[in-house]
Known about the structure:
By secondary structure, the protein is an alpha/beta fold.
Amino acid sequence: MKRFSNNALSFSRTLAQQRRCYTQPSSGVHSPHASAVQSSKALTSPYYNQSTSMPAQTRQALGLRGYHPPAVETLDHQQTRALQFLRAKTTALDKYIFLAQLRNSNLRLFYKLVNDQFEEVAPIIYTPTVGEACVEYSNIYPFLAPPGSPDGLYVTINDLPNLKEIIRSYCAKAGLDAPEITVISDGSRILGLGDLGVNGIGIPIGKLQLYVGAAGIDPRKTLPIILDFGTNNEKYLDDPLYLGLKQNRPNDEKFYASMDQVMSSIYEAFPDILVQFEDFQSDHAFGLLEKYQNKVLCFNDDIQGTGSVILSGFMNAIKLAEKKSGVLPQDHRFVFFGAGSSAIGVGKQLQAYFMNHYGLSEDQSKKMIYYVDSKGLITQDRGDKLAQHKVYFARNDNNEDQFKSLAQVLDYVKPTALIGLSAQGQAFTPDHLKQMATLNQHPIVFPLSNPMTNAECTFEQAMINTDERVIFASGTAFPSFVSKKTGQSVTAGQGNNMYIFPGLGLGCLCSKATRVSDGMIYAAAQGLANTLSPAELEQGHIYPALTRIREVSAKVAAAVTVQAVKEKLATEPRVLQLLGQPNPESAALEYVHEQMWDVNQDDHFITAAASS
């Protein structure tokens, strides 16, 4: 390998000469001559099908004259038509179905829409619409893709002995050479909707669409997997149209043994793949993370991704509260309404931040954090048996007093911040919000539950009941609020995981990390917090605009890449030199941009016959 020079520009040039294969077409795509196989690929492959934008000479070369109307359109013309059709749909679910059909027939046009219309399309392909799509998935599945078009890998508990063969067969038929990232769920805790069984496939599919659209992961390198281990949801067990296994879920012993088979088969087939665990019920989410995080390249988005994105928002919210109200960082008190895997993950990230950034001890930082579940404030002497993941944050300083309602907890704790991860819509009542506004000049309120129907309050409710003084972020998109004081439109901050996991995953792939460390998760949060523009800082935003999502993801990926190098977890030779650069962050960002798949890059979509 060439020796790198001492400046980022030379480093970038060297990388350009040695670009990794990751953004190039898979090795099986190019063949030395035109063939019927290539013609079929151009017509039936969602990736290579260009439809009406296929040039006349390509149609001629592939023997496809007469297969399309004579007009040859640009990708922008195709996008105009698709947008008109999309916007003519009257329901969010109809829009979801149309976009799924488009993704499974003309993938390039689909991602052109995602890239150019991200703010409009993201809420359709992911939250909040994906929640409704998952609930209805057995009903809409037959209408989402052409027959035989793989849209996700369905693995039942009965398939495990043959899983390696199933994975290889699926990847071959789906045109996947060597998947680099997979999102896996068992459907047991989908968003705030509970056990949806096999219908939860919509989550892995949706997450991977965001990896592509937000972070430039090559879609041919992605693998969505739903593990159908049964369901305990009686609604689906009794539904004749439910498409999953109609049996109850296994006990813990069989669950973990089955997951061992799944993980072994995946890593035997693809040793370097990144696994993202998604929407497992809380105990299993923590159990899987504890079991695998130090053995293989994996992370849990509900625990670590949520923790990271909310930590990033709090990094900026804490600065804003100090600037506006004079509240010192160490004087904050956080009340979490909800104590599942996501909530505990956020709390642990917050605790680590106060320890690392402000020098607080473990006990000092832990005492800043309070949890409320369905039985009230979580304390060690409440009298009930606590789930294992709740024990660490259980209070022992309550003097045997118990606080059953959220109002009682707010009065007792007098928090500066109220965070909702309960999946209970409207749990933050006007009285709760007014109570927060009485306690704080600028209260921090984060209703983070998804989908929108499960959000603890709306942006409008938070603004009205705090006299427009709230520092706000939600887990789902809310409409802007027109200030009654100034007449100006105020945008709601959105603490959505899409700000973190695409960049985190891209950073892992770029660095070829051997595992995902806590330091890399923290670096992702810090990287996100640093992406606010001067204008966004001036306007009091705590998250960047979604219109800049690809640049935001690139900066998060660069921060993760640098941290992986620092911790000696990176194995990609071209990034191991980063720390020797005068500005490793800048060099890493240039490198990351080099790796990002681009829907506008024509040579990613040319079949061998067309280019010969």
